[in-house]
Amino acid sequence: MVEPRSPGVNVFSRYKLPRLGLLVLGTLAARRGYDVSVLIEERTGVDASLVAQADLLCISCTTSTAPAAYDLAYKARMAGVPVILGGPHPTFLPEEGLEYATSPDRPLEIIRRPGRPSWQRYRGKQKNEAPG
């Protein structure tokens, strides 16, 4: 799970506070038995090799971080990693996310509105469909 770095000076520049969405969703996934890493790019950076090894990449973005999110999503998808976009920007402009981060052979998922209920439904569905 990745929260991209905001470009330039913004409300989060002075105090490096992450938005809580990915931390909550990562905790929920970990409690269900998934191995989860939450990367807040502003604080830790994003290791491209870690992203390329992921089974799934979830990116939360605001309008200011959308270009970085779309770039990261594209790179992950080209490495064969499925991507889910969420956050305020994809909630209001899902078509834009699909336009920038999708290729014909690799569809992209977008979670709109509050992520917790959608994430629980999505991961529950995926886990129930898994063999064994």
Structural notes for this entry:
The chain has one domain (2-124): 3-Layer(aba) Sandwich (Rossmann fold). 46% of the residues lie in helices and 11% in strands. α4 links the parallel β3 (57-60) and β4. It is mainly α. α1 packs parallel to α7. The chain is globular. The protein starts with a strand and ends with a helix.
How many structural domains does the protein architecture include?
1
User: If you consult CATH, what is the topology?
Assistant: Rossmann fold
| CATH homologous superfamily placement | Cobalamin-binding domain
Total DSSP helices: 7
Query: Can you tell me the residue ranges where pLDDT is under 50 for at least 5 consecutive residues?
Result: 127-132
**Largest sheet geometry:** 3 strands, parallel
For the largest sheet, list the strands in their spatial order: 3-4-5
CATH architecture level-2 label: 3-Layer(aba) Sandwich
Helix/sheet category: mainly alpha
Rounded to the nearest angstrom, the radius of gyration is: 14 Å
How many strands appear in the DSSP assignment? 5
Strand fraction = 5-15%
CATH class: Alpha Beta
Which geometry do the CA atoms define? globular
H and E string: EHEHHEHEHHEH
Q: Mean pLDDT, nearest integer?
A: 78
Helix content: 40-55%
Rounded to the nearest angstrom, the distance between the terminal CA atoms is 25 Å
